[in-house]
Amino acid sequence: xxAAAGVSAHTLRYYERAGLxxxxxxxSGNQRRYSQADIAWLxxxxxxxxxxxxxxQMREYAALRxxxxxxxxxxxALLEQHQAxxxxxxxxxxxxxxxxxxxxxSYRADLAAERAGVDQTxxxxx
Amino acid sequence: xxAAAGVSAHTLRYYERAGLxxxxxxxSGNQRRYSQADIAWLxxxxxxxxxxxxxxQMREYAALRxxxxxxxxxxxALLEQHQAxxxxxxxxxxxxxxxxxxxxxSYRADLAAERAGVDQTxxxxx
DNA sequence: CCTTGACTTCGAGCGCGCTCGAACTTCTAT
DNA sequence: ATAGAAGTTCGAGCGCGCTCGAAGTCAAGG
Lengths: 126, 126
Hints:
The structure is a homodimer. Chain A is mainly α. Chain A contains four helices and no strands. Chain A has helices at about 10-15, 35-50, 55-65, 70-115. In chain A, helix 3 (about 55-65) packs antiparallel against helix 4. The radius of gyration of chain A is 24 Å and the shape is elongated. In chain A, about 15% of the residues are buried. The interface of A and B includes residues 41, 92 and 94 of A. Chain B binds a DNA duplex through helix 1.
């Protein structure tokens, strides 16, 4: 059970169906045997996945890979595009973090005021 | 159409159904009229949403808010918890960014080698 | 008055990424 | 030889966060 690669057998089969993994070698009895290369590829996919790359794009990437080494440039472009998205995500998250931190600070102030017996402002939530 | 607050009327009603927005004032003809306070609250919600807070937790927050000012501490705790998650997300995204950058660098090297007429390594994807 | 268009409720449907279960086959250990 | 664990295919289901459509109600302009 190659699902020890950090993912369920169900998911593994799903990835195959989804065209992310080219059909893997089978035993005489039709059972899948994952090679080292298969596992490496899977882990690469999982890393892309973790970074929020949608399945559809991973499929594109996988298709390019299937077409051979002459698609390296195209694959690189995909990765770069993904990297750009990742950058954006991080930047956005950081902005949100700032807003949230401000909100929390003001909440703390409210609490302090309350403990001091001062009336609260209503609807201070925005 | 208060949906000009950056969200569709459908979504607005969905949020009400979902318990994120307490039922808003209606005209004689049963039509919703959003007050400034409603709009402010909505925008606060949307900000939480954008930062990836799940609806379920927003619902919790909304419920606490409905219970009055004595729940401020609890709400603060929720926000802090969310902040922690946001921090984690950012940290994770940064790690992914590093991995991806490394991958891209190696791809560029592959491309350069190819242009130089050197054979490619197969399965270099992990 | 009457059209027209924005509102209402309700429940169904969607896109994503799995996740699961049924029914069947195959492998493994005794 | 055989029990039972683990594999197979297939299609359905789920959880999230909307999104949409049908059928009806209401408001405002001509």
